[in-house]
Here is the input.
Amino acid sequence: MSNVYSIFKRDLKGYFSSPIAYVVIGLFLIVTGIFFYLLLSSFLQYSYSYAVMMQRQGQVAVNVNLMMIRPFLLNMSVIVLFVIPMITMRSFSEEKKSGTMELLLTSPLTNWQIILGKFFATYLLYFTMVGVTFLFMVFLLIWGKPAFWPIVMGYLGILLMGAALVALGNFISSLTENQIVAAVGTFGATMLLWVIGFAGDFTGKILGELFKYLSIVNHFEDFSKGVFDTGHFVYYLSLAFLMLFLTYQSIESAKWRG
Amino acid sequence: MIEVNNLVKHYGSVKAVDDISFTVERGEILGFLGPNAAGKTTTMRVITGFLPASAGTVRVAGFEVFEQALEVKKRIGYLPENPPVYFDMRVRDYLKFVATIKGVEPKAINVEVARVAERMSITEVMDNLIGKLSKGYKQRVGFAQALLNNPPVLILDEPTNGLDPRQIIEVREIIRSLGQDHTVILSTHILPEVSMTCSRIAIINEGKLVKIDTPENLTAQIQGSESITLEIEGPVVDVQSALAQATNVTSVSVQPTRRDDVAIYKVESQRGSDIRKALAALIVGKSWGLLGMKSETLSLEDIFLRLTTKEEEVN
Here is the structure.
């Protein structure tokens, strides 16, 4: 366990002592901030005219969760698809390129300690990045009256989806010593996992169901509604474990290939 | 301490290491000598557990490297060909990190890091970023890393790579002193380096172990012949055939000089037969002019070239 922590700590320091963490988090916050602002202003406009109309009839205000938070979370779930490749591209590629992988693999560490240390470091970066956007929700909670639990569910969904995607990014990073290839490969894979759901609409029934099941964003929809479904939970976690397992295989097979 | 038995390693269809066996005892320094791509690095990587063997076994301190990888890794300090350093870390942080993953007790880490830094004389750069260090310092930081937790076995892949002449001497000094209580395997393609630092030399070529012995024995064994250089004034064809027919002479080669009637002859004779007197008598007897005679012993360089060039030329 302490070995996992050593790897985790070193990697995390690496991210935060280089510009990577700041650039990625900054970029993510700018994009999500813009979306938040746009959604908020259109929501305000809408709710104002709605309120004027409804006041005459003596009805309640519009739902913040439905009109504002849910679209925001759905947006965010797509934005992370673009950002995760930047978080994970360095993970293993950098070590392979600089020869430090040789140090890790000849130190008294198990492959799992290395993999988990690296996974948690990249995941914490993701967690921090997503966590900062919770500030937007805090503003809404202070000045509005959104339901709290749907927000928590939404964030839980984003974090679970992130676990699967970060593990995927780590796996692809373990396949190459070139960071750009790792980033592009991960980007391709996350896009594929996204658009495969659209393809589901145009294929036959069985294939369509399968595609929709595989689509990573489809599983997020229920979370964004504030619904917790163990099926989605299981999907994300099993995808994450599968990816970590593949990373293990990739490291082992790299040894055999030399 | 290290036992390698019939080690074979394939990369796809390429045989990088072909049936190598040797043992290294405690306190020995074994030098791997061979041209580039001879299989030195691969052999070392198998011993460290970085690469699995395709066939054969490797045991370090009684542990099988593949089956009991962790036990073996605890006992090996390894300096790869390129120092395995993180460019964005400071030397001190880097050494602390390596000390932790090598299992140094948390309380002892600072002392241990200071010890290896002292040994590799890098104390003055401890707070510098590794990426900004010169090649020589990076190499020494990499070396320092291998010494952390004082492992009984050290595997050093070209340890003097990238160092300036003075640092090379220092590092050789360090290796020699480490050799007293450690088992060391190092690789190099610099010939004087092995003869200076190693107690035994393994010459590796094209994945095969060509020879393994002490530097002295190696020189003695391989000197199957002695070579004498003569400068003689006389008809070249006659002189050459006369020399070739002399007793114990195995081969004669001619090097022309500016004068037509003077040439330099390189005569190889069977080992242990001093034929200088006989040759001198022969030449004087034919009333040719003996202008010079020099007996040569083979340098390690000659031996290396002989062993690693084609088989026919060696015999």
Q: What stands out?
A: The CA atoms of residues 234 and 288 of chain B lie 5 Å apart.
